[in-house]
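Contributing new records

If you add data, match the layout below exactly. Sequence lines come first and carry their own label; structure lines follow with theirs. Keep one chain per record. Anything else will be rejected by the validation script.
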Amino acid sequence: MAGKDDWQAVVRANRKILHVKKGALIFAEGDAVAGVFFVYKGIVKIQKQWARQKQLILNFARSGEMIGYRGLGEEPIFPVSATALEDAAICYIELPFFESALETNHALTHALMKFFANALQAAEKRLRDLALMDVKGRVAETLLMLERKFGIDAGGYIDVSLKQQDMAAYAGTTYETFFRMLHELKAETIIEQDGKRILILDHNRLSSLTQIIPA
């Protein structure tokens, strides 16, 4: 079996680096799956249409994350779309090579199984939160998720700059409601804002808003 360095060389020889401009689609809901994508640089949103001119953002992917895996299966059609939120570099690997790599590289297959299991658990939690959590709790969970994923800068602010429309779409609410919830959180001194930048002042109080009370 080829070693890790050998496999990395093979992958480099079979990959394509796609340079995607901010706002451009990487793949669209309904497209046929011809390969797999990894974010090499930049931030990508994974979204699904749920009503006319409305979208639900399922995830924000950053450097090193795999995207488009929801299209792998017996029906190789993307059920979601991916859009670059900033100029991005995307690693693309054609499906036949990726499938042959899984057949011959057991370590890769095992790692992918764990990735899919974690992704499934995260998706189930998202569905539960959207169904059972009130809107203020979903806004709170959105802010906590962004801090977990992107970390904080030297000033303690969440180290990513996103449009409030995109954060609202992740929280499953409207821009107007999201904006109002942020103002409530600021008035309660739970968060602080400086333009688009958000600082979580009280993690305990913010986390308490995400608790789902059994009926």
